[in-house]
Amino acid sequence: MDRSAQLTARPAPGEIAYDQPPSATSAHVAAARVLAANWTGSSTVPSRSLYPHQWSWDSAFIAIGLRHISPLRAQTELETLLTAQWADGRVPHIVFNPSVPLDAYFPSPDFWRSVTAGRGAGAPRTVQTSGIVQPPVHALAAWLVHRADPVLSRARGFLARLHPRLAAWHRYLLHRRDLGGAGLASVVHPWEQGMDNSPCWDAPLARITPAPARSFRRADLDHGAPGDRPTDLDYGRYVRLAADYRDRGYTREDGEFAVEDPSFNALLIASEYALARIAGELGATGTARRARAERLTATLVERLWDPRAGMFLCRDLRGGGLLTERGVGGLVPLLLPGLPREVAAALVRTLRGPHFSFGDRTRLVPSYDLLGEAFDPHRYWRGPAWFNTGWLVERGLRTHGETAAADALRAAVVRLADASGFAEYVDPFTGEACGATGFSWTAALALDLLATDHPEPGVSPTGTGAFDRSDEGGDRR
Question: Which residue intervals make up region (Disordered) (predicted)?
Fold first, then answer.
């Protein structure tokens, strides 16, 4: 399909029925079945086929949805993940299930060698993990899970046990990962930002000599179409970066890739607000954390906002400037209540404008600029729409009072999640399922959006509002 056809595409008869929303009951049941099928007894795999272990930010999103069907399972999800935390505070992006064969997923535990290579950084000895991280959604998830059933949470000491681990996680990011010296956290591998294959990484990755293709075997191609997945060249660069970081003992962040990313930092700031709420629940004051969240918001605007682009951009710390590619991560800071009004308004215009075209040419928010040379509606994070970023943008729109747009996006996420079989991601024009189906965070976030017809608008600086739904049970002390 050529570029002009992509930009005007509409679903053909028999494809996704956008104008026929699923029954809330049937969608709820179907989503709950996905999460039940992917539950291992202590955590939830993203997908039984493609991703057979526990992933860090997946588990945070999964817990946000699980709280509506089992607050206990939601609490267990986060507790299981955080038992694999390293002594230096990092939460690894994968916690490996020892019963899964090594060849079921690459990079496998024998690549990461966390127990030995990570010894100096305090890797746990009883569980094998990766050595890199993922976006810090966890404190936000913990607060929402607590709010779903405060009586159960208090009885189990849920927040009291998680709070020190979450605080250590944030300290690691705010100190060890402040590679630019301005206060923002940096990622040292594209996998850490979560949007692995985004064209935003093309320029900094071009400096990386790829690992030879013969040195690794990609298990992902056994479960997904090659045209939907990263290229072998990109994968070779990912492997090289990860191996180099491992060989430095996971303690030196002086590699060739270091990027300040707007979505990673927006999620850190949102979780700082959540940690302030958690501190308040535990009888402490969250004043310092709220003040830090406000300062970090100002720093985010100062360092990563580009008024000409009308959105936030990534900063390449090794290349010396803002990267010009427009990815959906540049819209995620809409989550933040402290954004200047003109910045929030510009982000909404960009969302609706030709680069993302939500509500016009696209049915969900594409992961990359529709007008970018690298746009591809099917290849991983190079254009397809993802449900977790749709959920984040929906929350952001509601935060800033864009209720009609938030309602439209909410309806689209739920409708497409159900119609696509809870796909990992979809073509933003046609809704065609890509990647795995029965994907856990798609099901979980659809459940969250189904939980109430009228989410509260706005987010106060204390973290209430769009993340504190009015029907979540409240304070039942």
Answer: 1-21, 454-477
In this structure, CATH architecture of domain 27-99+132-185+258-452? Alpha/alpha barrel (1.50)
> Residue 294 pLDDT more than 70?
yes
**What letter represents residue 39's amino acid?**
W
DSSP state of 221: G
- pLDDT score at 222: 56
* Three-state secondary-structure class, residue 454: coil
Residues 174 and 183: beta-carbon distance below 8 Å: yes
Domain residue ranges of the chain, discontinuous segments joined by +: 27-99+132-185+258-452
User: CA nearest 160: which of 252, 279, 20, 5?
Assistant: 279
Strand partners, 186: 260
Q: Per the residue annotation, which of 58, 149, 192, 424 is the catalytic one?
A: 424
Helical segments of 341-439, H only: 341-352, 387-399, 403-419
- Amino acid at residue number 377: P
Question: Would you give the distance in Å from CA 98 to the centre of its chain?
Answer: 25
Task: List the catalytic residue out of 196, 232, 253, 456.
Answer: 196
For the beta carbon of residue 374, count every other beta carbon within 10 angstroms: 15
Q: Which residues pair with 311 in a beta bridge?
A: 306
Q: How far apart are CA 356 and CA 407, in angstroms?
A: 17
Is position 424 annotated as part of the catalytic site? yes
- Pairing verdict, β 259-260 and 305-306: unpaired
pLDDT confidence band for 10 (50 / 70 / 90)? very low
Mean pLDDT of 318-332: 95
196 catalytic residue (yes or no):
yes
Nearest Cα to 428, choosing from 459, 393, 401, 396?
Answer: 393
The model's pTM is 0.91
For residue 223, the SS3 value is: coil
pLDDT tens for each residue of 202-253 = 999 999 999 887 766 655 555 566 666 667 788 899 999 999 999 999 999 9
Closest listed residue to residue 264, CA positions, set 354, 170, 357, 130:
170
Q: How far is CA 277 from CA 171, 280, 284, 328, 395, in A?
A: 17, 5, 9, 28, 18
More confident position, 7 or 177: 177
Question: 393 is written with which tokens?
Answer: 């943008």
The predicted model gives 438-449 an average pLDDT of 97
56 in helix, strand or coil?
helix
